[in-house]
Amino acid sequence: MSDVSSAERECGKAFLPKFDSQGLLIAIAVDSETKDILMVAYMDEEALAKTRETGLAHFHSRSRGRLWLKGETSGHFLRVQEMRVDCDQDALILLVKPEGPACHTGARSCFYRRLDGEDLEPIA
After folding, report:
1. What does UniProt give as the signal peptide span (predicted)?
2. Is residue 53 part of a domain?
3. What angle do CA 85, 68, 89 make, to 5 degrees?
4. I want to staple 57 with a disulfide (CB 3.0 to 4.6 A). Which of 44, 70, 93, 95 is the partner?
């Protein structure tokens, strides 16, 4: 349990990230120009520190169980322009400048389909 009060976390000026029981925060990458949601991932303390240190989005890969620099294999980095923190500091919005597609499928965004009844339809 944290020593930080809700009032400190919600109304104070200090950055006091609230990691979940697995040590993760939700991180939503948003294109800083278009405001399109590009992807949702998780950050642990290491990923958050590396992102702040380098200006490049780092995440915690749950499937690989390790630090992951977005773009490390594809070259499609996300350059962080601004970080926004939600009210209880357990989620972040990263306003980013993408250097190529954000999705591993090659799509610009991981959100490239919409639900239409029971079917997924590509978003034009």
Report:
1. none
2. yes
3. 15
4. 70
What is the reported pTM?
0.91
In sequence order, the 6+-apart residues with CB closer than 8 A to the CB of 77 are 56, 57, 69, 70, 71, 98, 99, 100
pLDDT in tens, 12-47: 899 999 999 999 999 999 999 999 999 999 999 999
Specify the number of domains making up the chain. Answer: 1
CA 124 to CA 114: how far, in whole Å?
10
Is 90 annotated to bind a ligand? Reply is yes
pLDDT digits (tens, 9 = 90+) for 38-97: 999 999 999 999 999 999 999 999 988 999 999 999 999 999 999 999 999 999 999 999
Q: Rounded to the nearest 10 degrees, how much is the dihedral formed by the CA atoms of 5, 51, 95, 97?
A: 180
Q: Which of 54, 57, 52 is nearest to 67 (CA)?
A: 57
3 is known to lie in a ligand binding site: no
Consult the annotation and say whether 88 binds a ligand: yes
